[in-house]
Specification:
Blueprint: E1 2-5, E2 14-25, H1 28-31, E3 33-38, E4 44-47, E5 51-52, E6 58-59, E7 65-66, H2 75-99, H3 116-121, H4 123-140, E8 146-150, H5 186-194, E9 203-207, E10 217-220, E11 224-230, E12 239-244, H6 247-253, E13 255-263
Parallel strand pairs: 2-12, 9-11
Antiparallel strand pairs: 1-2, 2-13, 3-4, 3-8, 4-7, 5-6, 9-12, 10-11, 10-13
Helix pairs in contact: 2-4
């Protein structure tokens, strides 16, 4: 239902709408994507996530899946791949040297435990570990980037960018710092205080744009002010999706029937 309301300040007009508001986050379980290692030009990726999503689908790690994304990976995907594979190769080299008896008894304590400081003090060993890490970084940053892939619906296998239909990254509504309760959330208040994030911020709302056009500003009780900048296949009529940074916060809000105000 919709009803007209008078201005709350100045000449600003609002309309009231009874809607079903559902919280969501960009967590892989909630949005249906998963981390995966791309295998270069081969149209396959190796999933890294494990668990059950709210939809009931199960994420199984290390079971190769079809990759349908043909675009080149983003720079941050290459950087993440380089970091992950470099770390894995360096750790693998460390374990290999430790298990091969390369250092003999000098690399172990009286109790027989590995002395990591002795291991790294050996120039040959340290050089081998660094070389393995460099090779891993080279491969991860060129051939095996770590990316996010859609794992559900007809988009499965395509790259997941994490942006809205307007190309913006979603964000949670945030009031002015004077309205942030330091007793309820002392850590969040302190973070905002020291990083100078004092101003209010509009949250991301997904809606049926025939009902709530893009860029519409809405006030949602229990959430705050947001702007419509995304759509969804299952969002029709008087339904809204509200973005939260943390999955636990989204689960706490859940799904509610609320009266929202839209700026005319």
């Amino acid at each position: 239902c919709t009803s007209a309301m008078g201005a709350s300040s100045g000449d600003t007009k609002f309309t009231s709408h009874a809607v079903e508001a559902t919280a969501y986050s960009s967590d892989w379980r909630s949005c249906g994507w998963e981390w995966g290692v791309a295998l270069g030009p081969i149209p396959v990726y190796v999933p890294l996530c494990a668990g059950t999503r709210p939809s009931g689908s199960v994420a199984r790690p290390f079971v190769p899946k079809r990759k349908r994304e043909v675009n080149a990976p983003h720079k941050h995907d290459l950087l993440l791949g380089a970091l992950c594979l470099s770390t894995a190769c360096a750790l693998g080299a460390t374990v290999r040297y430790a298990c091969s008896g390369h250092l003999g008894s000098a690399g172990r304590s009286a109790a027989g435990h590995l002395r990591l400081d002795k291991l790294l003090a050996n120039r040959t060993v340290l050089g081998g570990i660094l070389q393995a890490g460099a090779v891993g970084a080279g491969l991860g940053g060129t051939v095996f980037p770590v990316q996010r892939f859609w794992a559900e619906t007809n988009l499965a296998g395509f790259g997941y960018a994490g942006t809205t239909c307007t190309g913006a990254f979603p964000k949670q509504a945030r009031p002015a710092i004077t309205r942030h309760n330091p007793i309820k959330d002392p850590v969040g208040f302190l973070q905002r205080l020291v990083t100078f994030r004092w101003r209010p911020r509009l949250g991301t709302i997904a809606a049926d744009t025939t009902k709530f056009p893009l860029k519409s500003k809405l006030f949602v009780p229990g959430y705050g002010w947001g702007v419509v900048e995304d759509v969804g296949g299952a969002i029709r009529g008087d339904k809204l999706d509200l973005y939260f940074n943390k999955r636990n916060d989204a689960l706490e809000f859940g799904r509610q029937r609320v009266e929202v105000l839209m700026v005319k």
